Amino acid sequence: MGTLVTLHLPPDSPVENLPWIITIGALNDDEDWEPLVCGPYERPHALALAQAVVADEDLMAVVEPLLPLADAAAIRAEVELAKSGLDDGASTDDLEAEHFDDGPRHTTPGRPPTGDEVRAGFARIAAKLTSADQ
């Protein structure tokens, strides 16, 4: 049985609506292969797909938000923020809080989405990423 690692988000977290990626890797250090990164997905799809993949395998899946930063200046600002250890906004608050939460969290991802459901999620993500509201 594998392991699924993700963030526990407070209700109404803005991070919930970001695109999410899945990184699948070896559960133990004895295996030597490069992790697979896939996505972006909507969070419920990412959780369900990751759970389906690791359910019967000795794999680890990390499900995390993807920050849609539009230019190099925004990326540099996030890098500096990460280096400083400070948080500067709602999404960063949510992410930083998870790193210090000692209690285990259990999620119920649900059934894996169909290919059509995932493609519809891709379309919704693309619409979010290309809207003027971002």
Explain what this protein looks like in three dimensions.
- The protein has 134 residues and is α+β, with helices and mostly antiparallel strands.
- The protein has one domain.
- 38% of the residues lie in helices and 18% in strands.
- The chain contains four helices and four strands.
- The longest helix has 16 residues.
- It is globular.
- The chain starts with a strand and ends with a helix.
Distance between the termini: 39 Å
Count of distinct strands? 4
Largest sheet features: 4 strands, mixed
| SSE-based structural type | alpha+beta
Instruction: Compute the number of helices.
Output: 4
Question: Percentage of helical residues?
Answer: 25-40%
Shape: globular
Task: Fill in the keyword field for this structure.
alpha+beta, 4-stranded mixed beta sheet, 38% helix, 134 residues
Briefly, what is this?
It is built from 4 helices and 4 strands; from the N terminus they run βββαβααα.
Write the layout of secondary structure elements.
Blueprint lengths: L2 E4 L13 E7 L9 E6 L1 H12 L4 E7 L6 H13 L5 H10 L15 H16 L4
